[in-house]
Amino acid sequence: MTHHVLVPVDDSDRSTDALEFACREYPDAEITAIHVIDPSDFYAATGIEGGAMANYEEIQKHHENRAEGILERATEQAAAFDHDIGTEQVIGSVSRSIVDYVEEHDVDHVVIGSHGRTGASRILLGSVAENVARRSPVPVTIVR
Question: How many CA atoms does the CB half-sphere of 63 hold within 13 Å?
Answer without folding.
Answer: 19
